[in-house]
Amino acid sequence: MRIAMIGTGYVGLVSGACLSQFGIDVVCVDKDRDKIDGLNRGELPIFEPGLDTLMANNVSAGRLIFSTDLPPAVDKADAVFIAVGTPSRRGDGHADLSHVFDAAKEIAAALNGYTVVATKSTVPVGTSDEVERIIGSLRPDAEFDVVSNPEFLREGSAISDFMRPDRVIIGTESKRAGEVMGHIYRPLYLIETPVLFTTRPTAELIKYAANGFLATKITFINQIANLCEKVGADVQDVARGIGLDGRIGPKFLHAGPGYGGSCFPKDMLALARTAQEAGNPLRIVETVIEINNTRKRQMAERIIDACGGSVQGKTIAILGLTFKPNTDDIRNAPSLDILPALQAAGASLRAFDPKGMEEAKEILTGIHWCGGAYESMNGADALAILTEWNEFRALDFDRIKSLLKKPVMVDLRNIYNPREMAEAGIQYFCIGRSDMNRKAGL
Ligand code: UDX
To answer: What does pLDDT average to over the chain?
Structure first.
């Protein structure tokens, strides 16, 4: 079995490396020569735990190669995966499908023998049909089927998500294509992974509906957290209490500063647009988008309130810039709203993130970049935790108090326990849990 993976972003690179681990010969293709040259030197363009070892093992086994040359990769392939970026189109929030359609045209020219063309990028309903039309019009002679095969991996746990997925979704009505896809995912069959065969539009909508539901679930608990603060309840216990209901489940009920990343924000916009254009607007999705965007902006207000209502002339230590831990990705991270708002309110910022600072430096300006968590706290008036990196989970309270001008911590990820913080003499502000400061006289 030979596969060509078109696109070496998070999805393409992880999928290509994992499929080669299945024993399949994979050629990962990208137009970006620098990226391909780097990959051929063993340099990864992204940080993803375990990906370097997985890639190195399969490159040395001769099953995984990187190339800028699409035609020979497609010519020899039994299946070609389109895993190029589908960013939000400027201005209207639709998914920009130009890279998908460009890839379809290049693939068409190189097809040789029966080939499955699988759309793995997150694409709006109907895109696979359009890919089939493009290829068919350019190559009426070619023997091929287009399949929708969306990916559900999460950054930071992408390899385990690919290797042990909750399910595989395959959208096709071609028996022959189904057999090829079944062969590709056979190692997952062996661990009894559910494989759902359905139509292409259904497979495409499953992806958006999944992300839409997850983003809604997060936004729901964030809203409940706000209510908890008003009525003196504890959102973590509410999450635990509802999550024990098998119909709800415990995951994605961590209240925080709002969701970010390269997927939820863009996929929610695309889903809302698709629904509007279909004459069936998804009001829930539209409302979740608006609430989440507002929430990220509101988080700066929380930090300002914790500093007595003004951060003018004050220094704030910021821990965490990435949209979640175990990634270097800061796309749509709450930090991109929070830090500029604090600066606009007159604060100076000292920031540290274990992996995200290089990307952050491209976007955020006027920040004092620090080499570690405690360095950021040096002389600061308050500390704010924006991302729940493990290394922020056991900070030394005495050291924090010795470094900060005032022992004030705003924990937007509920890493710490309010009672413990009160006992440690730290004014602690968090999400959706009772304020122990007053009771502790802080
Ligand atoms: C998401 C989907 O989970 C994945 O299935 C899809 O393939 C791509 O998009 P990803 O964006 O990598 O994955 O990260 P995820 O772990 O889903 O977190 C997304 C955002 O939600 C992050 O900003 C995270 O901090 C936030 N989040 C997640 C919460 O605020 N609370 C939670 O309980 C879970």
So the answer is: 96
What CATH homologous superfamily does 2-198 map to? NAD(P)-binding Rossmann-like Domain (3.40.50.720)
Look up tokens 């509007």; give the residue: 276
228 is an active site residue: no
* Whether residue 419 has pLDDT greater than 80: yes
154 Cα to the center of ligand 1, angstroms: 7
| Measured distance CA(121)–CA(84) in Å, rounded | 6
What are the residue ranges of CATH 3.40.50.720 in the chain? 2-198, 293-439
Q: Is 65 left (phi over 0), alpha (psi -120 to 50) or beta?
A: beta
Judge contact between 168 and 196, C-beta under 8 A.
yes
Position in ligand 1 atom list of the atom nearest CA 151: 7
Q: For the segment 201-244, what is each residue's pLDDT rounded down to a tens digit? A: 999 999 999 999 999 999 999 999 999 999 999 999 999 999 99
Cα-flanking dihedrals φ and ψ of residue 95, to 5°?
-70, 135
Q: Are 366 and 331 in contact (CB under 8 A)?
A: no
Domain 293-439 fold is Rossmann fold (3.40.50)
Q: Is 213 in the pocket of ligand 1 (CB under 6 A)?
A: no
Model-wide pTM > 0.90? yes
* Rama region for 21: left / alpha / beta (φ>0; ψ in -120 to 50; rest): alpha
How far, in Å, CA of 8 to CA of 333, rounded?
Answer: 22
94 pLDDT band, cuts 50/70/90, is confident
Position 437 scores a pLDDT of 74
